[in-house]
Amino acid sequence: MGVSLAAQRYSPRLYSHSLLGAIVWSAIVAAGFLLLAGRDSPRGRAAAATILGAAVFSHFLLDVPVHTPDLPLGPGAGSPKIGLGLWNHRLAGIAGELAVLIAGGVLSCAQRAPAAAARPWRPRPSVWHS
Q: Is the four-CA dihedral 89, 92, 96, 97 of positive or negative sign?
């Protein structure tokens, strides 16, 4: 059962999951953070807004290897579409998801406070009071 061209033409996904849509959402989140952020230093707010915008944009980057070629570059049904279709290959998809999970865990552990570096797997006192 296919989806009609009319339904595809007006699908919100054409905008929300497009490259252009990802850029717009990233800018909206970054700008929203700058508007709502407290009185931190302007440099710190700009850095945080950049990180938040990049995190939102990373959704599109992580969707490209997983989706079939259905992610549009721009708005509209006629826009070129990209995607590598990893979700058609179950084991490869699971391996990719696990690789991202493990990489995130390694990055998280690497960012621990220097005092905790000597004992990286023991909870920090600021989190667990012993």
A: positive
Whole-number Å distance between alpha carbons of 43 and 126: 27
pLDDT for the residue numbered 1: 45
Query: In sequence order, which residues have a C-beta less than 8 Å from that of residue 11 and are 6 or more positions away?
Result: none
Q: How far is CA 98 from CA 61, 93, 106, 108, in A?
A: 17, 9, 12, 15
Continuous segment of H or E residues that includes residue 71: strand 71-72
| pTM higher than 0.85 | no
State phi, psi for 110 to the nearest 5 degrees: -70, -20
pLDDT tens figures, 14-58: 567 799 999 999 999 999 999 988 777 888 889 999 999 999 999
Burial, 49: exposed, middle or buried (Cβ in 10 Å; 0-12, 13-18, 19+)? buried
